Amino acid sequence: MEVKSKDLWVFIETKEDGSPKKVGLELLNPGKDMAKKQGGELVAVVIGSHIDASIEAASRYGADTIIAVDGEEYKDYSTDAYTIAITKLVEKYGPTSMLIGATNNGRDLGPRIACRLHTGLTADCTALDIDEETGNVAWTRPAFGGNLMATIMCPEHRPQMGTVRPGVFKMAEPTEKDAKVIREDISIPSEDIRTQIVELIRELDAESVDLEGAQIIVSGGRGVKGPEGFAPIRALAEALGATVGASRAAVDAGWIPHAHQVGQTGKTVGPKLYIACGISGAIQHLAGMSGSDHIIAINKDPDAPIFGVADYGIVGDLFEVLPVLTDAIQKAKA
Question: Is there a contact between 168 and 289 (Cβ–Cβ < 8 Å)?
Answer without folding.
Answer: no
